[in-house]
Every structure is written in structure tokens, then in C-alpha cells.
């Protein structure tokens, strides 16, 4: 029986790609070209390599899943949620801790949100994975930035047409009260929101594959968080089934060390790491 190969593409969206001018349409209201909100250096080239990988391996890919970072404009990790203690805007790329909020350095714009905000920050910090980061408003649902990179979308559409299988789309991040880097679960799951809890349907789908090929953006955050959760929750914990396509992901600026440390850590756990060209050759030769 042929091997089952599942390609998991993490957040291949316009807002994360350092797109060249030819990829930037004009805003119909202003005439100004759209601009990615949180471009990752190297992501456009990553997505071009990923598109070529999909085309090259279409005949042996049995499943493709695409995750979509999907946020509201008002979100606990966006500047729209926060102000400084004296009422000034909070700039993107500002980390915020529970201690700073308790000291009055930062506060939610709605004063009634303070108790829930502190509860979230306390739980987030207790888990020890991340400090809350205020990112630029990004991947806002319904915007151009939320859309998939054009070459990747075209490649997986060709795969759908050829193989007559549906590319599964998995949104994440719609709960504005918790960060949601991982494709599998939010950083602090909301007991009242199943969308933020462990996505057992996705986990089961991935578990049915002999190989799980992983690419996307960013290697320092959403790819990293997803693989960490796979290492924790994948039935059987056979991490040799996971393959990182190393030339199809890049880190957020300033977080290259986080990506490098993550890659070394999961390599020690048995996760394979291959370039897209090498992996395509291996798949086609199998």
C-alpha cells in the first residue's frame, strides 16, 4: 500500500510574507498598495519553495491541511486592546506582563476587562511558554492579509483539481482572549470555547498519516508551537513521523535564536529536518 503523506502548512498568509510589489494589490478605497502587517523576512521565498514542493510531490501527497491565523481587530495581543497607564497607545512589539499591569504601566482600554486580563496573564506566565506580545493587528478576518499566499494557494488548488481531494482549512485565533500560536490549541484554552481547546479532529487526521510534513510561518512561533504540541499530544509519540521542511519556514525578526533552539530540541526528540528539494526526491523515490 502506498505511504500516506500529510502536508501541514502553518499560516501561509499574506500578512506574514515579505511580498514584492507585484504581489501587493491596491486598496480599492485609497488606491494605496496593501502591505503585510507582520512580514517575516524570507517568507515569500519560503512560500515559493513550498509551492514548488506541492507541485513536485502532488502525486504522493495524500492530504493537505492549511491553518489560518484568524483574528478580530480587537484582540488581547493587538494594540487595539491596550493603553499605557496614562492613556497612551501601546506600540506593536511590546511585551506585557501581569506584574506590569498590576503596577499600572499598562491596562486594557475597557476597565471592566481588567480581572479577566490579569487572570489570562497569570495563567499564561504560569505555563512558561510565552510572555504576552502585542503584535500589529494582523490576519484580521476578512482582510487581504488573512488570505493565503498566491503561489501556495494556486499550487494546492492544482493538487485539489488533480487528486480530487479537499484541502482542509483550519482557522485558529478567533477567541480574542487568548493567544493561539499552535494549530492544535490556544496558549491558554478557554473552558467555554471549544475552538481554543485541543483540536482532536486535526490531531486524529494527522495521526492517520505515516509522514507529517510541516511548513509555514513563522518558524519561531506558530510552527514551533504546533510541533511542540504535536510532540506532547501525538498518539504513540513517534516523532520520527514528523518532517520539518527547513527551507519553507523563517523566524520573526529578533527570534532567530528561538527557532534555532526549537529545531535543535525537536531534532533531539527524533523529528526529521529536510529541505523541500531533498524531501521531494525522497518521497518520489519511495
TrEMBL record:
SUPFAM superfamilies: Isochorismatase-like hydrolases (SSF52499)
Coiled coil: none
Recorded GO MF terms: hydrolase activity
Domain of life of the organism encoding this protein: Bacteria
Protein's UniProt keywords contain Disulfide bond: no
Matching InterPro entries: Isochorismatase-like_sf (IPR036380), Isochorismatase_Nicotinamidase (IPR052347)
Keywords for the protein's UniProt record, in alphabetical order: Hydrolase
Alphabetized Gene3D superfamilies for the sequence: Isochorismatase-like
The keyword Transmembrane appears for this protein: no
Family: Belongs to the isochorismatase family.
Protein name: Cysteine hydrolase
Originating species: Achromobacter veterisilvae
Amino acid at each position: 500500500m502506498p505511504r500516506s503523506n500529510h502536508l501541514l502548512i502553518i499560516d501561509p498568509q499574506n500578512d506574514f510574507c515579505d511580498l514584492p510589489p507585484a504581489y501587493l494589490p491596491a486598496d480599492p478605497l485609497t488606491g494605496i498598495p496593501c502591505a503585510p502587517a507582520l512580514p517575516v523576512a524570507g517568507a515569500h521565498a519560503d512560500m515559493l519553495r513550498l509551492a514548488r514542493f506541492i507541485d513536485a510531490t502532488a502525486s504522493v501527497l495524500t492530504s493537505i491541511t492549511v491553518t489560518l491565523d484568524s483574528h478580530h481587530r480587537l484582540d488581547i495581543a493587538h494594540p487595539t486592546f491596550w493603553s499605557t497607564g496614562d492613556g497612551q497607545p501601546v506600540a506593536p512589539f511590546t511585551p506585557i506582563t501581569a506584574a506590569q499591569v498590576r503596577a499600572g504601566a499598562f491596562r486594557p482600554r475597557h476597565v471592566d476587562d481588567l480581572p479577566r486580563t490579569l487572570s489570562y496573564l497569570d495563567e499564561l506566565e504560569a505555563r512558561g511558554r510565552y510572555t504576552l506580545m502585542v503584535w500589529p493587528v494582523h490576519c484580521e478576518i476578512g482582510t487581504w492579509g488573512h488570505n493565503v499566499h498566491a503561489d501556495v494557494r494556486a499550487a494546492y488548488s492544482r493538487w485539489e483539481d488533480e487528486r480530487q481531494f479537499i484541502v482542509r482549512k483550519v482557522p485558529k485565533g478567533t477567541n480574542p482572549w487568548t493567544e493561539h500560536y499552535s494549530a492544535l490549541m490556544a496558549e491558554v484554552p478557554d473552558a467555554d470555547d471549544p475552538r481554543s481547546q485541543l483540536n482532536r479532529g486535526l490531531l486524529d487526521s494527522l495521526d492517520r498519516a505515516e509522514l507529517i510534513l510541516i511548513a509555514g510561518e513563522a518558524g519561531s512561533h506558530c510552527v514551533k508551537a504546533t510541533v511542540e504540541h504535536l510532540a506532547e499530544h501525538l498518539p504513540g509519540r513517534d516523532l520520527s513521523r514528523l518532517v520539518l521542511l527547513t527551507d519553507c519556514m523563517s523566524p520573526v525578526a529578533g527570534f532567530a535564536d528561538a527557532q534555532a533552539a526549537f529545531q535543535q530540541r525537536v531534532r533531539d526528540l527524533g523529528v526529521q529536518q529536510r529541505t523541500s528539494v531533498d524531501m521531494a526526491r525522497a518521497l518520489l523515490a519511495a
